[in-house]
Write a structure and sequence with these properties.
Helix content is about 40%, strand content about 15%. By secondary structure, the chain is α/β, with parallel strands linked by helices. A hairpin with a 2-residue loop joins strand 4 and strand 5. The longest helix is centred in the C-terminal third of the chain and has 19 residues. The two termini are about 35 Å apart. About 5% of the residues have low confidence.
Length: about 240
Amino acid sequence: MVSFPFTSDLMVTLINQCVNNSIMLTRWKKVLEVMLCKIPGSYDLEKLRVIQLIEANLNILRSASTYIYLRLVWGKRLVHNALHHDLFLEEQFGNHTGVQGSCAALLKTISSDLILIRLLRTNATIFNNSAKACYDRIISGFSQLCCQSLGLPTKAAEFMLQFLLAVEYHVRTAYGTSEELYGNLSTAIFGVLQGSGSAPAIRLAVSNMLICNYNNKFILEGTPNPTRTDFLTKLLGAFV
């Protein structure tokens, strides 16, 4: 692989100036929207996934704390910092080292088996929530607060919010790219932009915060219902 250290240093300098002085380059604002089939061959709107494609070197910025290190991925640096300081909760599965998606599936299976074994004396409700369009529904300001709770510097969070409010969306189809565009006006839509290199790490931070708030609410072994005939015992797991 050929290395171009001068080019890399130049890009770092450029991005440093933009981040530190809240400058948004015109070419960074253009985001392409494409729709991909969730199920191959199914073109119903309900079965299509909207992906936002970001200008290449901005995606590097969004994927890395490049005002500090160009080559460190945002998610990697953020997640590693959270792991180093033991900030992830044990209920959080997926998208970080030390746990696997199969662990969440195993926990669900064992929990169901325990309920069945104790069926005669146990009332239980199992609730699964597949967060549809979850990346698009995340509130941008809240997402950056969650990231800051895991150690994201304020400067990076501010720049992310500035970008989300400035972005201009163009739709790309088989017929080409639209000349017309739409923007966010005063409220950022498409929360964290699915297709961004930073999106999985941001979703992980939000999920971790939601679990933390849940655990703070249910701090006892069980919470009685109004009749005090049953108890709600928390068992929460999240997979991103």
